[in-house]
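Q: Entry one of two.
A:
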Amino acid sequence: MVTKLGIIGLSPGNGHPFSFSAIINGYDDGKMKESEWDVIYRYLNKKDLSDFGILDAIVTHCWTQEEELTKILAGACNIDHAVKRIEDMIPEVDGVIIARDDYESHYPIAKLFLEKDIPVFIDKPLTLNVEELSYFIPFLKTGKLMSSSSFRFSDEVYTAKKNVHHEQLNFFRGSIVNDWEKYGVHLIEGFSTLTSFEPTVVEYQPGLLDSYLIYLMNQEVLQINCLGNMKPIFKMEIFNKNQYITFDVKDNFSMFKRMLWHFIHSIKTRNPVIEAQVTVNIMKVLIAGNISKAEKRPVTIDEIGL
């Protein structure tokens, strides 16, 4: 049976509605090229026709904040229904993808579907609002809600997980373009798969760039460097007594596809893809980091509550 999906976007600088929809549906070459998402067009264009499609899913409905943009998205990604109201999707779809990284929009949109028992995927970060996070927790636990950075599913992180010496204490360092809230989460999500991710304290380090130290229960430490507006960099490093691993996360197509596969599969099983507490801990780290920067002090995760 076909799994019908709705896709919801767009936020500035984030072309995920186009990339996610194209990976599932395939795309119209001319219309995608005209959409002006050049980076997305280039990596899609390198793929064979056989690389597109996930299980039995199809994106059947889409909505963005602008009617003309919704039509462009529908045309580029072979989506049959460009709707004028988000609510028009509710009786028509088996799941929705909120492909926006402006976290302030997530709660009001997701609530429409979650309370109709429609599974939802929310682009990173889920929310930096404690009350909203509390609302989402039951849905995370039951598998009705999934939210993740695609770094968790990247080939590069998978390879590192196989090779890192887990019997030794590790120091993890990551450097990424742009800011803590929207991009730091990529590194936190990726590193969370490489260790027992039980954060205790977050400490902002002032300097030429935004740097954050995340202390873990197992005495390992993560350092996240957010480099601001510069040439894209997505570098992850692992240090221990006898080992140094470094890699750049580059293959957007494969990690997006793997992430979407897991969401679509979870629609059928209603089983959580990611343990709820892991997602909650990642959001609490982001919240603690904001407080640490604003108040110029280390912030314990316990201060966030929940």
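Q: Entry two of two.
A:
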Amino acid sequence: MTDPSRLTLPAPAKLNRLLHITGRRDDGYHLLQTLFQFLDHGDTLTFRESSDERLELDSPLAEMADDDNLVLRAARRLQQRSGTSCGARIRLHKTLPMGGGLGGGSSDAATTLHGLNRLWRLGLRTPELAEIGLELGADVPVFVHGHAAWAEGIGEQLTRVELDTPWFLVIHPGVNVSTPTVFKDPELTRDTPPITITRALQGGASGWRNDCEATVRRLYPAVDAALDWLGSRAPTMLTGTGACVFARLESQAEAASLARELPVAWQAFVARGVNRSPLQDALDR
């Protein structure tokens, strides 16, 4: 029998299958155009309702300062916004690497908002949760809405899209890329002309690129090496600001075969691209 006081949900990874930087606002935030797609691979969170309003987190990141922990920040923001007196014990099973460009922290925050909204029976709608999520980070709303999207602005203006759903080999070359460092770099491309969503989709994956890639290659030799190794075998791109790189492949078997050739210093996983988030599938079950 299902325990109504306990809920386990996925927090899937994302890929940026295209990432253009079109400008910079006066407040320092960069203006982007990007295509977000989910993977059927990610972290897992378990929520258990507590008898008081305390929030407790059990995870490999428990030593992280509370102000930097997006799971606890999301839970507290939801408590404050809803006025609930409920609390929870949260267990985070961390699979996605930090600083990998896979959106792990943002995805964990979105799953926390959905999970506690369900566990605490708050009844908040998805747009309300996305609004809370935006206060935590520009990537959080796409995980809350749970569908592949064309994003503009600082990444918060979302339009649902349907992308192809190939298999991917995703490599983490063992370094943690600092997003602020990449975005502060004076040589970062910041003047790509904006394009329409129609043009982006008509161009297809063969024409997609990541404007952060040249900067990350220069600053992080391990990422440069991973891009060269994988790019010599299949169409390859950096996701987000890195450090993960991914290759688009036609089958799971092809991706798994390539993974077996991987240099021992790197980690990798095989996953399929999906347009509907595994979180949404889990919430509907």
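A: Comment on entry two: The CA atoms of residues 10 and 161 lie 22 Å apart. The chain has two domains: 6-161, 167-274.
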